[in-house]
Amino acid sequence: MKRIHCFFIVIALLAAVPLPSMAQVTQAPAKVLAGADRINVYLPLIKGRKVGIFANQTSMVGSTHLVDTLLKLGIDIRVIFGPEHGFRGTADAGEKIGNNTDPKTGIRIVSLYGSKRRPSAEDVKDVDVLLFDIQDVGVRFYTFISSLEEFMEAAMDLGKPLMILDRPNPNGHYVDGPVLDKKYKSFIGMQPVPVVYGMTIAEYAMMITGEKWLSEKANAKYAYYQKAQNSPDTPFHFQVIKCKNYDHNTKYVLPVRPSPNLPTIQSIYLYPSTCFFEGTVLSEGRGTDKPFQVFGHPSLPKTLYAFMPNPNEGAKSSKLYGQQCYGWNLSGTPGEVLKLVNNRIQLQWLLEAYKLFPEKDKFFLLPKSGTMEGSFFNKLAGNNDLWQQIVAGKTEDEIRKSWEPGLTAFKQIRKKYLLYDDFE
Length: 424
Known about the structure:
By secondary structure, this protein is an alpha/beta fold. The chain has 2 domains: about 230 residues, Rossmann fold (3-Layer(aba) Sandwich), CATH 3.40.50; about 150 residues, Alpha-Beta Complex (Aspartate Aminotransferase, domain 1). Helix content is about 25%, strand content about 10%. The protein is built from 12 helices and 13 strands. The strands form 3 sheets. An 8-stranded mixed beta sheet has the order 1-10-9-8-2-5-7-6, sandwiched between helices. A 3-stranded antiparallel beta sheet has the order 11-13-12, with no helix packed on it. A two-stranded antiparallel sheet has the order 3-4. A hairpin with a 2-residue loop joins strand 3 and strand 4. Helix 4 packs across helix 5, helix 4 packs across helix 6 and helix 7 runs parallel beside helix 8. The longest helix is centred in the C-terminal third of the chain and has 20 residues. The chain is globular, with a radius of gyration of 22 Å.
């Protein structure tokens, strides 16, 4: 399999491994290490430099946060950048967050999910190198890849070296869903990729740069830096610290919830299929202990599973709070839910909910703009086709068949940028 590393310096430092003995063959698989865990690899590269870190509550090294770990090792951290949900990961989905100071370390925090989406020259004037370490879940409408893209473009524009500490993708073992039509581009979908793209965050970064999917200005900057990469006056570059003992067959269970409404691996496995309900009048389970595992509406048959969403941390406001809803409960053990999803986006629940909903013309949330491009459901789907296919009564097989050309083309692009063995 051909691997294209683009402008990245990919740090692996893997020693030659001898053939295993018979005793070794029966041993348990080696522990997966995220890029942040491999301190001995990247610490020498940032020692003595002033650092800016894009991180949140998932940026852990064992049981200690990356920021605390690096401070104890004498690294000079000048600024922390925070994404959606904030640096500590407690804000609601979509909640705008202001700048503040981390009470534990006294380091200033610049929000990149509030008044702006990327660092300014003022934010990084005292920074020598930028680090990015955030756990993704491998789903297009999960905003951390959009934050990554904005951060990359800022690094290029400002001429700051960027190191990406890679992390395993819990949904990295398959690729599925409609490929985004750029007409429906938004912060919950910026690039022409399917809903589940089967790449780690570093592989994704390599792809969007290698395919020249960044802004015209960023692509031009990248071309300039490529030509000047051997010049001592042009220090800009990317570095990727790879995961160890990971490939795209690995079923990686996150040690920390990536956001308030993805508290368990079951929610993460179901998220690509059930997040579509965010674009409808149904509750997607926010305000319950099983977000994205339960969904329903008061108007659905009362013979279905009953639940009542209410405000909680990370979901202080959402649909249908305090109302008895009827619908589905897909919860189970991680293995049961993984088998239920079966390496694909499951449309059966969305189609069945629409079929049972009494007022069809009120099922989808209508865009305030009056245009289909403004529809939240269409932003999730990446097109207007899925909405129309559901209304037209298309079967799941018919809908899935319409995805095939886009998926086939994307898979060819994807393979060029993989750092780890693939699932096929």
